[in-house]
Design brief:
It is a single chain. By secondary structure, the chain is mostly beta strands. Helix content is about 0%, strand content about 50%. The chain has no helices and 20 strands. The strands form six sheets. It has a four-stranded antiparallel beta sheet, with no helix packed on it. Strand 11 and strand 12 form a beta hairpin.
Length: about 200
């Protein structure tokens, strides 16, 4: 399910708690785990929260200065994390749209490292897919924690229901499993001949 720049609805796949990425200028849509909230975001720079029962527009979370690349709803269904082309990762309260945390993505030699796949856990914030092949981690105050190196660039990631492990699909068909709290790589194994486009926990 997505909306075009003209506000027209389209069809796609929506999985509870998982991002659905749209192509081009279209917006992605995300359902909370309990199925109460629908969050849409994209080139308009504003995550919008809807009540799924009637779809009235509830909240505009204003703050990003550029298009939103990706968003994730927490496992408890209370907050949403967004990552933007303005090189910030932000955490919002789903009930009122207030910004709770803003993290500026790291830079190397003056150039920002673009990251995606933001996740908010009980103990911190992570961005799984970074161009420099490092899973970025921060505590709940935004303080950087040691990153977790990966062998190749990650394409997509999914957080375990208990927030302990991250499963990530790689550009070269590899699946990686990472211990978020311990900051370690558990295993990486090639499962496909080409890049992985989706990962989910059963």
């Amino acid at each position: 399910l997505w909306w075009s720049r003209r506000g027209e609805p389209g069809m796609g796949a929506v999985e509870r708690g998982e991002l659905v990425q749209a192509r081009g200028g279209d917006e992605g849509a995300l359902l909370s785990g309990g199925g109460r909230w629908l969050v849409t975001a994209g080139d308009n720079k504003v995550p919008v929260v809807w009540d799924i029962s009637a779809l009235p527009r509830l909240v505009d979370a204003v703050g990003h200065r550029n298009g939103i690349a990706e968003l994730r709803i927490t496992n408890d269904g209370t907050r949403v994390s967004t990552i933007s082309d303005d090189y910030t990762l932000r955490v919002w309260d789903l009930a009122d749209g207030r910004e709770q945390l803003q993290i500026t993505l790291p830079s190397q030699k003056g150039t920002r490292t673009f990251c995606s796949s933001p996740h908010l856990t009980k103990r911190g914030v992570i961005s799984a897919a970074c161009e420099d092949r490092v899973i970025r981690r921060w505590d709940l105050t935004g303080k950087p924690l040691p990153g977790i190196p990966t062998s190749v660039y990650l394409r997509i990631a999914a957080l375990a229901p208990d927030d302990s492990l991250l499963a990530a699909g790689h550009m070269k068909g590899m699946l990686g499993l990472f211990d978020i709290d311990g900051g370690t790589r558990v295993v990486e194994k090639t499962l496909h001949d080409h890049q992985i486009y989706g990962v989910a926990w059963g």
